[in-house]
Design a protein that fits this description.
Largest sheet: 11 strands, antiparallel
CATH topology of the largest domain: Tumour Suppressor Smad4
Number of helices: 8
Shape: globular
Oligomer: single chain
Number of domains: 2
Structural class: alpha+beta
Radius of gyration: 19 Å
Number of strands: 15
Length: about 325
């Protein structure tokens, strides 16, 4: 097994990259495992490096790539490794959200490099999506893959706002997210969309948000899709209607904890369902789409679950099941 740590040097706190590299080398020496380190140089470089390494790999030796960064870094590594039978994907969560690893019982263990090197790979689903038109796609009709979740509307706007707020003086960590929630609630930004489900039903009009998910969490621990399972071969889709601010503010604490589906108020305003594919299109112009924490602007997009498409490495001692609702 080759162990390659793909590090985003911009993720996490200042100086963390150097400490992480020291931890990686020390853990490899203690366990007698050969480790390799690659620092990404630009957005998309992680995907390029992983794919090139897989293409050059010879024989039957397995290679495990650890995405060291946020959910965006994990997305790059997963896209680079897709389709290569001997490639496994791991994650050392150093980003702002780190939402994918929260789907496991002990997300903190993903920071334990020795546990990572002794980890095991499990089959996990991916979401394949295709933009029929968009400014930030290499070519219309090109398939890409999402690891955790897509967000449109409120959640997406909060992620976009948080990316700016965390650069403001004295605004850090969870406070940046909570401040962004307040700002977007005041603006009451949603979306105006057409949503086509595989059973022939549809939604057309204004909504507060829609999430298309493989995992439960977004926004650094908000458990908006609590029924999601990483390997059930199904998408979880949550559509919240265009409701008054007061209604959503009252529901948000339960929404954040993932206990909202049992609330009568939620049942009246949320359409939550499982399916294998769907299509979403803006009613005018482009829509803002958040893909594993990264924002792009696009037209019509089709989504489809790809069962057990990724071999995901889980650290030794970590069990399955949703992790706690807290920040790493």
């Amino acid at each position: 097994m080759r162990h390659i740590f793909v590090i985003n040097p911009l993720a996490g706190k200042k100086g963390r990259t150097q400490r992480l590299e020291e931890q990686i080398r020390a853990a490899g020496a203690r366990l007698g495992e050969q480790v390799e380190i690659y620092e990404t140089k630009f957005q998309g470089d992680g995907e390029r490096f992983v794919r090139k390494t897989c293409e050059e790999q010879t024989g039957n030796e397995k290679v495990r790539f650890y995405a060291c960064g946020g959910d965006g870094a994990l997305n790059e590594v997963a896209n680079g490794a897709f389709g290569f039978a001997n490639a496994e994907v791991g994650c050392v969560p150093l980003g702002t959200g780190n939402d994918y690893v929260r789907n496991y019982a002990s997300p903190q263990a993903f920071l334990d490099i020795e546990a990572q090197l002794r980890g095991r790979a499990v089959d996990s689903d991916l979401i394949r999506y295709v933009q029929e038109e968009g400014e930030e796609v290499e070519e219309a009709g090109a398939f890409r893959y999402c690891v955790n979740m897509f967000n449109i509307g409120f959640d997406c706007n909060v992620v976009d706002q948080t990316s700016r707020a965390k650069n403001w003086p004295l605004v850090k960590g969870s406070f940046a997210y909570l401040l962004s929630v307040a700002i977007i609630l005041i603006k009451k930004e949603g979306a105006d969309l057409k949503v086509y489900y595989e059973d022939g039903t549809s939604f057309d009009g204004k909504l507060l948000l829609i999430a298309v998910a493989n995992g439960c969490f977004c926004g650094g621990g908000v458990k908006g899709l609590p029924l999601s399972i990483l390997d059930d071969g199904l998408l979880d889709v949550s559509l919240i209607k265009d409701v008054p601010r007061r209604t959503f503010i009252r529901l948000f604490p339960k929404y954040a904890k993932g206990v909202h589906l049992g609330d009568k108020r939620a049942q009246e305003i949320i359409d939550y369902r499982k399916c294998r594919k769907l299509t979403i299109a803006p009613n005018s112009g482009k829509m803002k789409l958040c893909v594993d924490g990264e924002i792009l602007y696009t037209g019509k997009v089709s989504f489809e679950i790809v069962p057990r498409a990724m071999r995901f490495s889980v650290p030794a001692g970590v069990g399955a099941g949703p992790g706690p609702n807290k920040r790493l």
